[in-house]
User: Fold these one by one.
Assistant:
Number 1:
Amino acid sequence: MSFIKKIFLIAIYSLIYVKAVELFLNASYNFKLLNIEHWQYIWDQWNSGWTIKSSHEFILVATLLLFVPVWLIGAVILLFLNTNNLKAFVKRKYGERKQRKMVQKAIADAKKPKKPEPKAKVGTIDQKAPVNSNEAKNAFNKKVVAMAAVVKKKKKKSPIKALEINQNAPMQSASPTQASSHAAVPPPASEPKAKEISKNEAYDEIGKVLYDTGAGMYSKAKFDGHITDFIVMAADKIGICVMGPDENELVADEDGFGDMAPVWFSEVTQMVSPVYIASKVANFLKEKGSVYGLGESVKLVPFVVMWRGDVLNYDSMLEQWQELGVEVLSFASSKNKELMSLQKFLDKEDFSNKMDQTMSENIAKLFVMASEEAKVA
């Protein structure tokens, strides 16, 4: 920072300091700091033998005596202060405040009850649906269920026969009268809730699933202070796996503030975005690939495994995750079942072509070297 800028900063500080002291003295003692008559009155009282008899008078005298020394100390501090650190501190605090407001709004919006889907009308069946499509058969079954449920409420005493539908036969149209004379097909039993597991158990289970692909494995690699839980090494690709946070409800945010990394929020805490970590490691390895022997033919595949909890705003984040090139997957007791499962992702990417043992060991050593360089940098 230039000397002129520091002088300007000290001038601003001086104005604020003088105004603050003046307001305090005027409010407490009716003493105006810049009024020469008030200073003359204090001086005359002192010369006439005035003695300090109360704490109230002591504070007045101490304030006047320390006025210049305190200002001087503040000016010296500002003169030698690293203003970059000050700016970073202010930006960080402002960013945290802004992000707290964002997460509070996002959590409130995510918890709002969703509008119920419109109920199927009794006596209406879509005749335009393709006859042999699975979609048409499922739609037909759902509408029959809705119609039969209404009939059952209106005719409690009438016997209701079970409706049988041959899924292999072409679907035939039915009149409202015929459809309402049958009972509903009982809905399929809901899937049992996923068992809650600890983070260590999830780590072991994810590691086993990745190991079963047949690829080489390297765990707990550190890059720039961040930990990637697993590195999966196949012949033509390297997977970068980061586990999601151990929280029940989360709001994701991939937009950092200034030099701050983007963070995910829960109602009680915040953590660096796992998508950011996976993306940063992938970009680092891509830049250093030629140095560490990773050819362009080796594909880098960053992904995050959500093993528990619920990302409340996941639907609004999918496009941004795709832009970052990171796949967010569901596993174990994750509530975001709309996300692709870890197993389906591994089947799609196919890590089964295992690296040569020597090459795998060399890559593992290179990861150690790369992580140490990233940490220093």
Number 2:
Amino acid sequence: MAAITEEPPGISAKLAVVRDAVPAAFRTAKSDDLAEIDARSATLQNTVAATLNQGFLGIFAVSGIVSLAGLVLVLVYPRRVRTAPTSARGEP
């Protein structure tokens, strides 16, 4: 395989143009993206709030169900009945 020892004509100039253009393109994209986020901020905030509310509702519902299940278990749990102690000699 033959090694390439010479650059194609004009490649250095083209690479310099691309190298100089990339940072500006990133700055433009960043400012455009931030402007888009600012424009949609109300929608984003509403979506986050709705999602959090659904999560908290789920936690509240599960806590309530577990509490009710515990209450039912306590109600059906057998109670110990204490009897009066008896004397060893048979005396009242």
Number 3:
Amino acid sequence: MRCLKRYIAREIYTTLKADLANLPQPAKPTTSHLPANTTAIPGPNPGLCITR
């Protein structure tokens, strides 16, 4: 039974790996949503920034 489970897992892995390799690569996200001359200083809470 263990061999059957390993075989099924291996087949699923190789199939998914091949399918994911055929997908188109997503577009690169922009590096920042702030203007180029803006400096972001991390604030005390995660996700909160002070911009200057």
Number 4:
Amino acid sequence: MREVSTNAYQSIRDLDFKIVTNDEGAVYTSADIVSMDIQRKLTDKGVSIGNAISDRLSVTLRKSENDIPKNTRFVPYVKFGDDVNYTRLGRFYVTKCTKNKHGYLNVTCMDYLNRLDKECKWKAGGGASALTFPATHQQMLDYITSRYSLSCSFVCQNWTVETKPEGYTYRQILSFIAASHAANVHIDENDAVTFVQFAEATYPLSAANVISQMIDETVGYTVNGLYIEVDDDTDIYIDDVPGSQYDEDATGIVKVKNPFATVAIANYCWTQLGGLSYISTTITKRATTALQCGDVIDVYDYAGEPAEFKAAVTALHYTVSASGGFQEQITSYADTGENKKTTPNKKADITFAVSQRFWSSDYLIVS
């Protein structure tokens, strides 16, 4: 989780949005923004590690220009109520710009990870000196962040790669380092490289802010084992039973390909992941921007029995529109089945309909 203002948790509030381009460039205000959509996720399936998935921003602007150049930096912000400061929602770079039937601009942007799909040859360049091997994970991480002028506060375990990895992109190298630390790699709203592990977080999720919910306590996921494919000839399997063998038909096995893996790395990852258990749920609510992918939170069946469950945030989806205001969809995905039970919170629906005063429909047009 990240810290946000107390206003972010209020049921009814005024909101203001803006998008700043290239730090010192043009500023698009609430009057310019027709709709906005931010998608971020750690994984395309249940709990897994070693993923490096880019966040995506889609925004429709009420502007007359024909195009916005590729690689233009887009930094969206929201201000809650009478907060003095805006909250940054991400940092993105334009990949596509087209006009829609209303004459507005549809702009698609990706985060900085999308720029790291180039082969890493470990040569000197940017702010990085050439790297020789053997090298530690920390040295490889420092090389990439220096080459691209990215910040990173993560401290790697003291593991060494003996032979120079060849034929991999910078994004893949980061994913292997992440997988070695039971994590997924992400670029945050400040262009900082972060390694996200699944960890419990205390989040005040209240029924008053829930718009709808899909939950099935029978569709859950528990990490029962870890299978690592090192190369075509080597794999590592670990669970709670000493000497056990990998069973491809077993459930709850986290699988990852990681050429950096060793037995020590597998043991470390197992201590981080083993026994993690959660249910499948999707919750749509008023956005606070406090949650982060990887947070493991308590959720409730608000429309049914007041039972408490654990949910692992595998994806977050923010939307801004005239019809819905500022919404946040939390996905806790378990790949053993589909959500089957829909429990819309009628009280929250009514409260939300009233609170649409916080966003002026004079500015937003649904395209």
